[in-house]
Amino acid sequence: MELKLLNDQGQAASDVAAPDTIFGRDYNEALIHQVVVAYQANARSGNSKQKNREEVHHTTKKPWRQKGTGRARAGMSSSPLWRGGGRIFPNSPDQNYSHKVNKKMYRAGLCSILSQLAREGRISVIEEISLEAPKTKLLSSKLKEMGLLESVLIIADTIDENLALASRNLPHVLIVEPRHADPVSLVFYKKIVITKAALAKIEEMLA
What we know:
Blueprint: E1 2-6, E2 12-17, H1 20-23, H2 29-42, H3 103-119, E3 123-126, H4 136-146, E4 152-155, H5 161-167, E5 173-176, H6 183-188, E6 191-195, H7 196-206
Parallel strand pairs: 1-3, 3-6, 4-5, 4-6
Antiparallel strand pairs: 1-2
Helix pairs in contact: 2-3, 4-5
């Protein structure tokens, strides 16, 4: 698999060889879906709390007599059938939403995503990315010259303070290290830009 090496103007200067074991795999939609859902579920915190009919604050008085009213029988207003009543199976704060995904499946899912992005031409390589000062304007102008300001995920080998501070105010730009490149971000952003050093780290991680 060949990836395009972009210059400072966003033009393809040459090609970079990428291993087919990572960027040349078949598209596995079921595996990608499982990996993305598991990643989002594992990031979910179980902090929701609902009350059962014992915990809701209602009177225990019988709303009306048992017979003769023409209405259905009712024992108390905390019944789950009533509006404002307790839940039958309430959520608890210690609820676990995590999904188990093996490391081999997770790596295979990432490789399948990267392979599909490479086939669609959404992955590019650059030599490096750095800034002289922590200025958002500098990074914005640099990405604008390369035509990457719309929606881009930049995977850099190292992120210094200037780059981190300059990128955090750009809503459609995310800069991460290779170990933090998650499947949700890879699917979400329209363009993926990888530095040469970060590409070598990705090959080492997913080999």
